[in-house]
Amino acid sequence: MADFTLTKDADGVGIITWDVPGKTMNVMSFDGLSELNDCIDQALADDEIKGIVITSGKEGSFAGGMDLNLLAVMKEQAGDDPAKGLFEGTMKMHALLRKIELAGMDPKTKKGGKPIAAALPGTAAGIGMELPLATHRIFAAENPKAKYGLPEIMVGIFPGAGGTTRMVRKVGAIAAAPLLLEGKMLDVKKAKGAGYIDEIAADPLAAAKEWVLNAKDADLVKPWDAKGYKMPGGAPYHPAGFMNFVGASAMVNGKTQGAFPAAKALLSAVYEGALVDFDTALKIEARWFTSVLMHPSSGAMIRSLFLNKEALEKGAVRPKGIPDQSVKKIGVLGAGMMGAGIALVSAQAGMEVVLIDRDQAAADKGKAYTEAYLDKGMKRGKVTAEKKEAMLARITATPDLEKLAGCDLIIEAVFEDPKVKAEMTQKVEAIIPEDCIFASNTSTLPITELAKASKRPDQFIGIHFFSPVEKMFLVEIIKGKETGDRAVAKALDYVRQIRKTPIVVNDARFFYCNRCIIPYINEGARMITEGVKPVLIDNAARQLGFPVGPIQLTDETSIDLGAKIARATKAAMGDAYPESPADELIFWMEEQGRLGRKAKAGFFDYDENGKRIGYWHGLHEKYPLAEQQPSLREVQDRLMFAQVLEAVRALEEGVLEDIREGDVGAILAWGFAPWSGGPFSWIDMIGAPYAAERCDQLTEKYGERFACPPLLREMAEKGQTFYGRFAPEAKAA
Amino acid sequence: MTEAYIYDAVRTPRGKGRKDGSLHEVTSVRLSAVTLNAIKERNNLEGHAVEDVIWGNVTQVMEQGGCLARSAVLASDLDESIPGLAINRFCASGMEAVNLAANQVKGGAGEAYIAGGVEMMGRVPMGSDGAAIAVDPSLAMETYFVPQGISADIIATEYGFTRDQADALAVESQKRAAKAWEENRFAKSVITVKDRNGLTILDRDEYMRPGTDMQSLGALNPSFQMMGEQMPGFDKVALLKYPHLEKINHIHHAGNSSGIVDGAAAVLIGNKEFGEKYGLKPRARIKATAKIGTDPTIMLTGPVPVTEKILAETGMKISDLDLFEVNEAFASVVLRFQQAFDVDPALVNVNGGSIAMGHPLGATGAIIIGTLLDELERQDKETGLATLCIASGMGAATIIERV
């Protein structure tokens, strides 16, 4: 069975149907490209065919994009010159799409071509959008679920099958830039406004057929192939275009903090392409596309944010042989901020939710969070009154524990006190079914300890959410010593239901994510005590691609929380606790009453609305600024190594079982430099030998916390990479 | 080694660079020819007396394009055997023309040159020649491009200059320029621009606002705050390069930045034999020249390192210099120069500068060399330095010494 087939109808329309066997959505493969090429050749050569319609055999969708293995094939086929393979492979795609666009017309008169239209039953993304863009007219169904767009930038590349060049020529650089740079998928109406689609039709196939049978020669000539073409909004050296292009570089630089190679490459392809004819522009696009694919960042991003994220979502680490554990009725204990968020996402996923707090008012307040969320959705036109009613009806807010009867999953989000948690566990276990799984959303307490309160510790697990629950993409699942496979499967199936990405780690202090975030924050605090400018610390982090710097992050999460964690950890660890000037600073800030954003005073000054005005300079009376400030690079290395060494130690200690989880988790949980693909990808990128050497330098200068973990030392000596050693099957694309 | 001497320096008055400016009706070629002819006439030169005309100009498109130097020569009374070389080092183009000419003379390539430049900013707007560094993402993003006004504000932020300091410098520039005109201090250099019929078009700088005070400047809004903080947000780009700064302090506005004007200037440079041949007395020798590249983001700090370079190369100290011309592209540029070398502000831009009288980009470098020489002669002092900051991060300097 082929991906593409050509049929002829009675009116003389050749219909090319894309229908990849065994897939719910079409993806473009190496073979698919050559089949499409053959179909086009045949249809153009066949005199009985007057016009051509390209459509999909899948209900409700056209195509999801490129099979990313195709890129690997292109690289491999060129042997020791992968850039050549990628460039030539890309140029072949351009040739095919250009053949569709020119449709056999006379190159001089632009006459005699065969009309080619695209009929899209629904979603078209990536090359699934770039192929229609090469046709003469794009018809899409009135399908409210469908999404259209070019999301390549999300995984660190950009549209490289002509999508960049065609959109820029079709709508102008300024209109195309946000589409290409943000990679947003749009619904059919917005897609039409954006220029992805030409017409919305009840029956796109019929409309497309009618169009190809009636199209005139002039209808087939793209504006950029016609004489006197002018780029909408102006080319770079047109007076209006000049200002736009100056602004574009500045905006992208500012927004990405210069830390995103794909954005630079995309913008360069747009600029350089805008200065030349269409075919030369395609060649330029191919060269930049190749350079982005050759950049280690794109491979690492595709691996973490596309391949491995999807693999984890599809159950890559789910215990084998456990039947489906989908949750039907969930009990959420504690209706505070976390509990309210958990109730929201659970109800959204169609589960019946019992939201418990100590009195009715507190429970209602938790439910009101969902109501407020839905009201906001209604204002934006994203939520209907029926949907709101149905979702709220699924949440029962009550202080009555008896209502938990019949739950198959409990998530406890009560006060972070082992005694309180133990008491709740016992009370609730008396009511819930024997096979119910009990989970704690603790972020600081060891699961194995909490499980001691349970009479069924094999059914006890940690499900650690990040705040705000409805916005954060990652859920960290923690196995206690006695946690059984069914509990893990249950947690994973639940996370799949609420459409988030899971990682599964073993129990240890702060699990995986907080274990890495805390040293990051502490390193920032330490630098302040050394007299480093706070703004330099935060900017250094931002230029690494972190959404916020450690100083600002401390204000956001609040100083007293940091102080509380420090005190609790110290109490738990006793003499083993490493004394740190970072703690001194945090305690001092706490004494000053500068508790962070919530107090409208922290490392920043705030106005009465809680908006940051600037850094608080009173800090420097206690910690004077050093005359000699460190280089940006030095600050960045300290912040980076503080985190990645903790990730390596988590792997060494078996807290992490899979480096893929370490990478995906870091990006999704705390925004770890997305361009790097995660902590392990980053070390692979800089190389273990260099990383080990840098550890030694940092240790000498700043202390033992930068000591090179034995595993990394060994890998440095052997010249190994993490993905080579631990996940050879998870190759970068 | 052969010495290169300045025999004469002329400049046109500076007209407002807009359509109600007096020079707006004059073409770039003609204004250039007016200055070339003035040099020829004032010094009784033959048409073939010089080796070449080196002509600075920044926006080399339209009437200023197509090798403006050659067009200017052909439009002037010089012989067609004089070729013409158009050059562009942005704001230092006029100075670079003089420096190139001097070094050609010193190297023995010809006896004399006319060097200078022109910019008709009202006729050929700044920026209309495009600039890859501003729009080519692979360059603009890698070099953290920001417009000059933002750069001037980065200097103010990085080196701690306040709006008041900048405004005070601007007030002083206006005061000094007004006084210089009052006392006819520019008489030696300024030529009258006349039409074909001998009628006067402009005979004095018309951009100046002599009444300017702190209060009137205080009413002006910062010019670069919007583009810095909002669209498209150049401050974020600036902070990528200067991550230790919290924010950019926007202190510059139309009143403490250089004015947009039309104007031209020319300098006659030759060796000793040339002077003897035409019976001319050398006014000064060009002791040293220098140029340098600097960080393109802060862009306008060039005068400091280029001065350090020229001092090192000549074995001089800053105290060996009697007077300074530091082009007033923006107030912070001059403030930074004064701060770096701790020089007495009374010795810097004695007769005002580009803030008061305007900055015809391609000509200014030649103008300030002439102004410096006039003032050295007036005060009967020996040695002076002229320097300019330059777009894209460059600096240029010339030291002249009276003979």
Q: Can you walk me through this structure?
A:
The complex is a heterodimer of chains A (733) and B (403). Chain A is an alpha/beta fold. Among the domains of chain A are: 4-299, 2-enoyl-CoA Hydratase, Chain A, domain 1 (Alpha-Beta Complex), CATH 3.90.226.10; 329-512, NAD(P)-binding Rossmann-like Domain (Rossmann fold, 3-Layer(aba) Sandwich). In chain A, 50% of the residues lie in helices and 12% in strands. Chain A contains 30 helices and 21 strands. Chain A has an eight-stranded mixed β-sheet with strand order 14-13-12-15-16-17-18-19, sandwiched between helices. Chain A has a six-stranded mixed β-sheet with strand order 1-2-4-7-9-11, sandwiched between helices. Chain B is α+β, with helices and mostly antiparallel strands. Chain B is built from 15 helices and twelve strands. In chain B, strands 1, 2, 3, 4, 5, 8, 9, 10, 11 and 12 form a ten-stranded mixed β-sheet that branches. In chain B, α2 links the parallel β3 (52-56) and β4. In chain B, α1 (28-42) crosses α2, α3 packs across α15 and α6 (148-159) runs parallel beside α13 (331-341). Chains A and B meet through α9, α10 and α20 of A and α5 and α10 of B.
Rg from alpha-carbon coordinates of chain A: 28 Å
Q: Quick one: CATH superfamily of the domain at 4-299 in chain A?
A: 2-enoyl-CoA Hydratase, Chain A, domain 1
Structural class of chain B: alpha+beta
Helix content of chain A: 40-55%
Strand order of the largest sheet of chain A: 14-13-12-15-16-17-18-19
Put simply, the count of helices of chain B is: 15
The low-confidence runs of chain A, each spanning 5 or more residues with pLDDT under 50, are none
**Hey, which two chains have the biggest interface?**
A-B, 33 and 29 residues
Query: How much of the sequence of chain A is in beta strands?
Result: 5-15%
How much of the polypeptide of chain B forms β-strand, as a percent range? Answer: 15-25%
Instruction: Categorize the overall geometry of chain B.
Output: globular
Write down the overall geometry of chain A.
Answer: globular
The total of beta strands of chain A comes to 21
Computed CA radius of gyration of chain B, to the nearest angstrom: 20 Å
How does CATH name the architecture of the domain at 4-299 in chain A? Alpha-Beta Complex
